[in-house]
Amino acid sequence: MSSDMNQPVPRPGILDIAAYVPGKEHAPGVAKVFKLSSNETPLGPSPKAIEAFKAAADNLEIYPDGQALKLREAIASAHGLNPANIICGNGSDELLGLLCHVYLGAGDEAIITEHGFLVYKIQIMGAGATPVTVKEKDCQVDVDAILAAVTDKTKMVFIANPGNPTGTYVPGADIRRLVAGLPKHVMLVLDAAYAEYVRRNDFEAGIEIVSENRNVVMTRTFSKIHGLAALRVGWMYGPSAVLDALNRIRGPFNMNAPAIAAGEAAILDRAFADKAVQFNLEWLEKLTVAFEGLGLKVTPSVTNFLLIHFPDQDGKRAPEADEFLTSRGFILRAVKGYGFANALRMSVGTPEANEGVIAALTEFMGKA
Ligand SMILES: *Cc1c(COP(=O)(O)O)cnc(C)c1O
């Protein structure tokens, strides 16, 4: 190994990290573009959140509340939690990073799953630890495979529930079986970014599971159902000892004032979020039926996006579909980096966008 003394050198492992590539935004040469690549809501945020954001513009010279107390209290009241067990972050991404930097170091292992969110791997490696990838079963997180992968080096397990980009979920009973099987010093991170969309009786976002254990945390986001992706608002519910550790290293003003204000207004506008869930459920069903009618396989989704699998046939594979859709202004997400070379992920969009994708894929599949 050559050591270069002429410039600063990152810690070992940092340059092995493949940087996160966000969903595409542009379709060159197309007048009207529908961005369906990042699971953003087509309905925007609550008007009350926009109002609160604008009002915050009057006090931009003042530092924000470093404890984000009003936001934590609003989250606590919406979910029936103790605000002392809530920490807010600049997106849940920041919290995932803090968890890794607090609990992982060189020589440690953290378990992720085959089609798991790429941010976990980046943060695990960023902390100098080793990601251990466990197979999924039919696009579904496999709790037994995770338990089988635990070694004496394992310090953390990351699960997105529901999963992205699969859109599937692990029932609460299986999460509880996982917790029961994990050593008590191994932390389970339940990333529940899409929990609000799920309407299944056997699903648990993780609140009770966190409350009952000292080694489980749940992260949530305002980027999806609440439509505040631009402001970067995430939160975590966890045991006091975990929050105490994270609060020692987080930036003292990690949440900006407009984000705190908008987040508070958004989570208190329950009627708006309920409407967004209804809209999503209707379109999830319509889109799934339409795509299956074209002969495409769709992984059953409980989220605001769909994983569409293309035929293994010349001219009909995912890269060709991606190109075809992009040329018509519909930007979906290629998910090769998540282990799906022949699939695209589509976020539920506006009715116009959704109808447009159905029409375009009808044309694409009908092509000789
Ligand atoms: C969108 C998403 C998030 C949210 O990240 P933020 O940093 O809060 O915007 C977290 N986890 C998964 C799996 C996601 O898809």
From TrEMBL:
Keyword field: Amino-acid biosynthesis, Aminotransferase, Histidine biosynthesis, Pyridoxal phosphate, Transferase
Pathway linked to the protein: Amino-acid biosynthesis; L-histidine biosynthesis; L-histidine from 5-phospho-alpha-D-ribose 1-diphosphate: step 7/9
CDD domains in alphabetical order: AAT_like (cd00609)
Residue numbers bearing the N6-(pyridoxal phosphate)lysine modification: 224
Cofactor(s) needed for function: pyridoxal 5'-phosphate
Domain named Aminotransferase class I/classII large: residues: 32-361
GO BP terms, alphabetized: L-histidine biosynthetic process
Catalytic activity, EC: 2.6.1.9
Keyword Transmembrane: no
Reaction equation(s) it catalyzes: L-histidinol phosphate + 2-oxoglutarate = 3-(imidazol-4-yl)-2-oxopropyl phosphate + L-glutamate
GO molecular function: histidinol-phosphate transaminase activity; pyridoxal phosphate binding
Family: Belongs to the class-II pyridoxal-phosphate-dependent aminotransferase family. Histidinol-phosphate aminotransferase subfamily.
Assembly notes: Homodimer.
Protein name: Histidinol-phosphate aminotransferase
Species for this entry: Allorhizobium terrae
